[in-house]
């Protein structure tokens, strides 16, 4: 199979964890993958350590915390003239020990900037590229902790995901504002809020663009990947106990390779062609269990709120709607 005959996917945050193993799994399915990463050397070392076959992937710079970087990445891709079969919005940062908010290059709180606003701009810029493919998909990683329909989304530590009336976004989301709801900064909640936004983004993209473009928009929760590098900034005791707890108590643990396999299924397999769906394998892992369409909370599915969030986000990233 020649490179030109292979379907092409972009995977953000592909230098470690779920993104790296999704890259491996997609390559195994005959795809060519662009590993979109902030640290090119780290991505190259990770690809080599996993023995990814040469010629099956390429590495491109993308810093989702910089809107200029997102635009530069898209411009470089567009210049190549390739159709895009799938965009996987995977990259995320989790900084639960921050006392004060970190800011992105654009002045936004770093978790929301990286996990949501960067992906929001990237997804919208890539719509035209996706439309050129035969059966395009835009897949976004969600999380159970941002879905209050499930137990993990109800845990009040530090607080459940809640965007309020988007007052922080309405007020420009720059210093001293650090939370979407405009309330005092809570780093763990900022992560949950950002992931709720990504799931709302996918639903709104489906509403606005699926019928006219044929792009399949979906989110997924692959299970609790408790030892992923996402948790590298969590307290050391948490990093030690959390995987054990998920393996032995909740039974929700999923390995990084299995999580990558599940992402690749949603990207490539014919059973996942329904748009506007959140795919899950359940909170308690069962051998041989198939994915199912998991219901999302009203926070994630309210059409009026999703439209409002989309329009406010477009203003923050400088996107004409």
Radius of gyration: 18 Å
> Which geometry do the CA atoms define?
globular
Q: List the secondary-structure elements in sequence, H or E.
A: EHEHEHEHEHHHEHHEEHH
How far apart the termini lie comes to 39 Å
Point out poorly predicted stretches: none
The average pLDDT is 92
The proportion of residues forming helix, as a percent range, comes to 40-55%
Total beta-strand segments: 8
What does this protein structure show overall?
The protein is globular, with a radius of gyration of 18 Å. 44% of the residues lie in helices and 12% in strands. Helix 1 (17-28) packs across helix 9 (256-268). The chain has helices spanning 17-28, 40-49, 67-80, 110-131, 151-154, 167-170, 187-213, 236-250, 256-268, 298-301, 303-317, and strands at 8-12, 32-37, 57-61, 86-89, 137-141, 216-221, 277-280, 292-293. It is built from eleven helices and eight strands. The protein starts with 7 loop residues before the first strand and ends with a helix. Strands 3-2-1-4-5-6-7-8 form an eight-stranded mixed beta sheet, sandwiched between helices. The chain is of the alpha/beta class and 321 residues long.
Short description:
The protein is α/β, with parallel strands linked by helices and 321 residues long. Helices cover 44% and strands 12% of the residues. An 8-stranded mixed β-sheet has the order 3-2-1-4-5-6-7-8, sandwiched between helices.
């Amino acid at each position: 199979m020649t490179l030109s005959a292979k379907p092409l996917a972009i995977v953000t945050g592909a230098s470690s964890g779920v993104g790296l193993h999704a890259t491996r799994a997609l390559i195994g399915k005959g795809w060519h993958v662009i590993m979109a990463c902030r640290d090119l050397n780290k991505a190259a070392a990770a690809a080599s350590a996993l023995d990814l076959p040469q010629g099956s992937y390429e590495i491109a710079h993308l810093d989702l915390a910089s809107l200029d970087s997102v635009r530069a990445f898209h411009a470089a891709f567009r210049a190549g003239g390739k159709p895009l079969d799938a965009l996987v919005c995977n990259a995320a940062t989790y900084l639960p020990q921050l006392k004060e908010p970190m800011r992105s290059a654009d002045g936004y709180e770093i978790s929301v900037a990286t996990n949501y606003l960067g992906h929001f701009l990237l997804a919208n810029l890539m719509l035209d590229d996706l439309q050129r493919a035969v059966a395009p998909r835009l897949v976004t990683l969600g999380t159970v902790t941002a879905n209050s329909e499930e137990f993990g989304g109800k845990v009040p530590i530090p607080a459940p995901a809640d965007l309020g009336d988007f007052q922080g976004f309405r007020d420009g989301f720059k210093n001293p504002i650090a939370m979407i709801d405009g309330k005092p900064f809570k780093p763990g909640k900022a992560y949950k809020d950002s992931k709720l936004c990504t799931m709302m983004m996918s639903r709104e993209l489906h509403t606005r663009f699926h019928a006219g473009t044929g792009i399949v928009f979906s989110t997924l929760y692959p299970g609790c990947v408790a030892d992923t590098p996402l948790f590298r900034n969590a307290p050391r005791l948490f990093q030690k106990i959390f995987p054990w707890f998920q393996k032995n108590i909740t039974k929700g643990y999923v390995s990084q390779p299995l999580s990558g396999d599940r992402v690749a299924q949603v990207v490539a397999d014919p059973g996942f062609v329904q748009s506007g769906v959140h795919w899950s394998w359940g909170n308690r892992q069962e051998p041989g269990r198939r994915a199912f369409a998991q219901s999302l909370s009203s926070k994630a599915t309210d059409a009026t709120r999703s439209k409002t969030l989309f329009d406010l986000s477009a203003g923050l990233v400088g996107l004409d709607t």
